[in-house]
Amino acid sequence: MISQDLHHFRPLLKSCENPTHLNQIHAQILKQFPNLQYPPIFQYNVLIRGLAAGKSPVKALSLYRSLLQTQTRPNNFTFPFLLKACSSSSSLVPSGLSLHAHIVRTGLDSDPYIQSSLIHMYAAVAKDVKSAQKVFDLCSVHQTVCWNSMLDGLVKCGEIELARLVFDRMGCRDIVSWNTMINGYSLVGDLKLAREVFDKMPCKNLVSWNSILGGYNKCGDVEGALRVFREMPHRDVVSWNTMLACYAQSGNCDEAFELFDEMQHSGVKPTDATVVSMISVCAHLGALERGEWVHKFIKENKIELNTILATTLVDMYAKCGEISRAYQIFYAIVDKDFLAWNAIIAGVAVYGQAREALRLLDEMRESGSVADDMTFAAVLSACSHAGMVKEGKYLLDCMKVTYGVEPKVEHYGCVIDLLARKGLLDEAVLLMESMPMEPNAPVWGALLGGCRIHGNSGVADDVGRRLLSLQPKHSGRYVLLSNIYASINRWEDASKIRSMMTNKGISKIPGTSMIELKGILHKFVAGDQSHPESKKIYQKFIEVSERLKVEVGYSPDTKQVLLDIEEEEKGHILSVHSEKLAISFGLLHTGLGATIRIIKNLRVCRDCHHLMKLISKVYDREIVMRDRNRFHLFKDGACSCMDYW
Questions:
Q1: Counted domains in the chain
Q2: CA 603 from centre of chain
Q3: pLDDT for position 566
Q4: What's the pLDDT at 35?
Q5: Is the residue at 633 inside a domain?
Q6: How much is the pLDDT for 4?
Q7: In angstroms, how far is CA 578 from the centroid of its own chain?
Q8: pLDDT digits 0-9 by tens, 333-352
Q9: CATH number of residue 455's parent domain
């Protein structure tokens, strides 16, 4: 007999979605249980279901253990909820195996929904396809729900060909079957087959459209994704978020913000996933003002600043040159996971703050968070930017022993880059030869970069040939090798490399620089005259050059122009570098003392670097520049990189 007090909890449990309220109800029910001779299985099931779907699914298993100590017996509704709890994390799979034994003992192993849950747990979570297949084969009647679980499990295991075989064998497919197959092909990037299944569907729902939209996003096909998005008969927040993510990943900042405005006007409420995409695009482009606007939007709309969202903000502020604000948000995160630690460590790494990166690594370890390969790639990169040979070599040696992380090719690459930058080319070659894996193109590229810095054409000859064979279409490799030859007046060899590029139809990536003004990004290309204020910008640069010449004796470093041409022509080439146009634009439109921020896609040349130092002194400005490798903070005539980059 159920007490009246316990009846009162039934509607509350059915409607409860808030974890805090669920815990309160749970506590009240537990107080009632001791007063009941036979607590009803219904109450257990509803509470187990709520706990399984909450943030601490392990509590569902604890409650089940309490159930076993009573005279109340689990039924066919109990186990799917428990198996769902076990499927929330691979660490709970052993509990799922014990549950499977309980299910067999209770004689409920023929229930199709229990079978479906078991198949899902084995295949999708434990990645144990054989065990999933055994459960599937034991099904007395292969209902669609079991077929779908097997199909979904194979997709999540990456067994897309086996999944297609199961799909083709299905006598009765429902919309879940079709959607699972579309999603499977999308996950592996096979857009052609995903589209083929989508087009053959007898009936499509919103999940179908979102799955194919996700496929275009996965493949980076922005135009295709937008076409699908506009064709959709209905859209939900997932649709909008997927399209925003597509724009974010491709760096389409303006389009992302236009779509974000459209999303709000359509009445769809943004979620944390929405603003994660918006922050990511700001981080990619270094658009600080827009990033600050999104941060303000989060606060004003009371969007929960969970660990993922906070980590994205840390990454954005770090990439936009505001490392102090990145720190503020990082230390405000209550539950710091390894991604949060990686974001702040990578943030200080691009500033070349190697000692701070090493300090954070120690702090991360003390906090109990486990470093991964990305953590060490960031710290080793910081050591490379700071020229800390001893520390970098030691960290590579102790990765496996102290931290349990097996060094990968990128970690060796960081140390080879470190050695090559310091001119220790022989040592870099020895390390490369001792690697337990074959060096890849970035490793050879690091070695070639060291040859450029130190003018070692002998090593560059061999390294260059290897690189061009590995990456025959990579323009940067040709340019770097050509520049090495030109720097030591091997003009004939430099010309041969340039001719190879021309004959293969390979063009040099143009240098571009961006500067943000009042939320609008202005992009400049070397020699660009397309900007509406182009005439004023060039006039400003002439004015700046003359002032620097008079006050601090500036003259262009023509050694940076690695072409066999006249000095006057070399000076003209240097004058139209994209960052010089960007800084001129910034000086035109910002007030006295305002910080100027520039994002450049390539490594800044020495002449532009020297110019920025002089401008920071003569014009009393702070200039923050993010180039392809790192951040440079120019202040009072000096740079934070200490002229080592």
A1: 4
A2: 22
A3: 44
A4: 55
A5: yes
A6: 45
A7: 28
A8: 999 999 999 999 999 999 98
A9: 1.25.40
Residue 390, pLDDT above cutoff 50: yes
Q: Are 129 and 140 in contact (CB under 8 A)?
A: no
Q: What's 141-209 look like in SS3?
A: CCCHHHHHHHHHHHHHCCCHHHHHHHHHHCCCCCHHHHHHHHHHHHHCCCHHHHHHHHHHCCCCCHHHH
Q: Which residues contact 535 (CB under 8 A, 6 or more apart)?
A: none
Beta bridge partners of 600: 513
* Domain boundary pick from 189, 216, 243: 216
- Judgement on whether residues 73 and 40 belong to the same structural domain of the protein: yes
Give the largest CA-CA distance in the chain: 101
Residue 382 domain flag: no
pLDDT of residue 598: 96
Residues 477 and 534 in one domain: no
**Which domain range does residue 488 map to?**
441-503
Give all strands of the β-sheet with 638-639 in edge-to-edge order: 520-525, 512-517, 596-600, 623-626, 631-635, 638-639
Q: Is 555 left (phi over 0), alpha (psi -120 to 50) or beta?
A: beta
At 580-630, the pLDDT tens digits run: 999 999 999 999 999 999 999 999 988 999 999 999 999 999 999 999 989
pLDDT at 623: 97
Of 503, 538, 573, the one marking the end of a domain is: 503
In terms of C-beta distances under 8 Å and separation of at least 24 residues, what long-range contacts does 564-572 make, across chains too? 564/486, 564/491
**Position 52 in a domain:** yes
Q: Could you tell me if 539 and 470 lie in one domain?
A: no
- 352: in domain: no
What are φ and ψ of residue 337, in 5° steps?
A: -95, 180
Rounded Cα–Cα distance for residues 595 and 574 (Å): 24
